[in-house]
Write a structure and sequence with these properties.
single chain; 279 residues; alpha/beta; seven-stranded mixed β-sheet; 9 helices; 11 strands
Length: 279
């Protein structure tokens, strides 16, 4: 099922030294047929319709923002994509094929990885030991060298022998990302990735995500920080009360306009986002 450009762990020699060229290339990615397509996805918990008829397209190599206030349905939607929840209705396609992950493990086998806001690492273990826990035994050969090469290729410098307890929040996030990359993802979901990072760590993360996009990996990026959305993402889906209310290129609208779309006010701008018609 993996498409061209998705074999990230096998192309660590392809490093980008010029960050400006990386950013330019990332901005032109994602122009082909959608890698991920969701159609009329719904999910109900009791009387609460958490996600209602949501349709979404993410292109290959695209950095796609998912915006909305707390309770808008973003977390439920990405949990469906990642196999943590099953939708009540609707369809998903991944690389043109039906996609119905029964679990996160099934999602990862299909090429969809996720880095959660709260890390799932064992403090007493090393970087290498934590990463090994997520891999098949046949992937563990020369793991230390593989971690070193892959992390350096994407600006995620790590010491495989360092203990997690000794690492900063930014370094712990790098471990989570490298662990995902070693499973060869087509899509990487990032949930509020800069909430625990310093500004310098956040800037380095953006460089890494742009490099991944150029290598063909699509990014679904969840954040409340609208300025970083505008700087990083080339497309955005805005959710409110479980529904998609607008799609736009966040680089072409103001942060205030995005905020108004999220909370339900009428956007006021020279280049308005495209509102989604009522169902």
């Amino acid at each position: 099922m993996r498409g061209e450009g998705s074999h990230l762990s096998g192309t660590v020699q392809s490093q980008f030294q010029d960050d400006a060229s990386v950013e330019a290339a990332a901005g032109s990615a994602g122009t082909s047929a959608p890698l991920l397509e969701l159609t009329k996805i719904s999910k109900t918990f009791g009387s609460l319709r958490a996600v209602n008829n949501v349709s979404l397209k993410v292109g290959r190599g695209e950095i796609h923002a998912l915006l909305g206030e707390n309770g808008a349905g973003k977390s439920t939607l990405v949990k469906i994509i990642y196999g943590l929840l099953r939708p009540d209705t609707g369809n998903m396609l991944l690389d043109g094929e039906g996609y119905t992950p029964s679990s996160p493990a099934a999602s990862r086998r299909s090429g969809v990885g996720m880095v959660f806001q709260h890390f799932s690492l064992f403090d007493a273990l090393t970087v290498e030991e934590n990463i090994a826990l997520a891999l098949d035994s046949n992937q563990s050969a020369n793991l230390s060298a593989t971690i070193h090469d892959l992390s350096n290729a994407y600006g995620l410098t790590l010491d495989p022998k360092a203990r997690i307890a000794e690492l900063s929040a930014g370094e712990r996030q790098r471990v989570e990302i490298v662990r995902c990359l070693l499973q060869d993802p087509q899509i990487l979901i990032m949930d509020e990735p800069t909430s625990v990072l310093t500004p310098q760590e956040a800037e380095q993360l953006f460089v890494t995500l742009r490099r991944l996009a150029v290598a063909g990996c699509s990014i679904i990026y969840i954040s409340h920080k609208l300025d970083e959305i505008r700087a990083l993402c080339e497309s955005a889906t805005v959710m409110r009360r479980g529904e998609v209310v607008a799609t736009c290129d966040p680089r072409e609208v103001y942060a205030g306009q995005l905020a108004e779309l999220m909370v339900g006010k009428i956007a006021r701008a020279d280049r308005p986002a495209r509102a989604v018609p009522d169902h």
